């Protein structure tokens, strides 16, 4: 899966190349080199991701699930736990 930031970067670079380079051959070559460079960056990141995912160390492979769980719990607390808690406090006569 391509990295969206790199796709946006490529689009921006292509726009700059289109505006600044009048020669069509040079423009095509620069766009090709840009695409190849960004593809190499994308492949390198995919390799890093694969190595992290297969690592047996909790501190290497575990950070992504940890962030997922932390964000999930935070969202659940904010949008489910807090409203229910406020509702229960209101029912008990303790206004928040």
What does this molecule look like?
The protein is mainly alpha-helical and 96 residues long. The chain has two domains: 54 residues, no CATH class; 40 residues. It has four helices and no strands. Helix 1 runs antiparallel to helix 2. The protein is elongated. The protein starts with a helix and ends in a 5-residue tail after the last helix. The mean pLDDT is 87.
Protein structure class: mainly alpha
Q: How many β strands by DSSP?
A: 0
Strand percentage lies at under 5%
**Helix percent band:** over 70%
Which consecutive residue ranges, at least 5 long each, have pLDDT under 50? none
Principal-axes geometry comes out as elongated
| Count of helical regions | 4
String of helices and strands: HHHH
End-to-end Cα distance: 46 Å
| Major sheet characteristics | none
Mind telling me the C-alpha Rg?
24 Å
Tally of domains: 2
User: Would you tell me the overall average pLDDT?
Assistant: 87
Concise synopsis of the structure shown:
This protein has 96 residues and is mostly helical.
Keywords, please?
single chain, 96 residues, mainly alpha, 2 domains, 0% strand
Topology summary:
Elements (H helix, E strand, L loop, with lengths): L3 H17 L3 H31 L3 H4 L1 H29 L5
């Amino acid at each position: 899966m391509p990295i969206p930031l790199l796709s946006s970067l490529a689009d921006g670079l292509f726009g700059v190349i289109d505006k600044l380079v009048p020669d069509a051959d040079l423009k095509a070559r620069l766009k090709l080199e840009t695409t190849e460079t960004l593809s190499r960056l994308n492949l390198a990141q995919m390799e890093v991701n694969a190595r992290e995912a297969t690592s047996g160390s909790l501190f290497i492979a575990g950070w992504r699930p940890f962030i997922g769980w932390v964000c999930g719990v935070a969202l659940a607390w904010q949008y489910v736990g807090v409203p229910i808690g406020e509702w229960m406090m209101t029912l008990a006569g303790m206004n928040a």
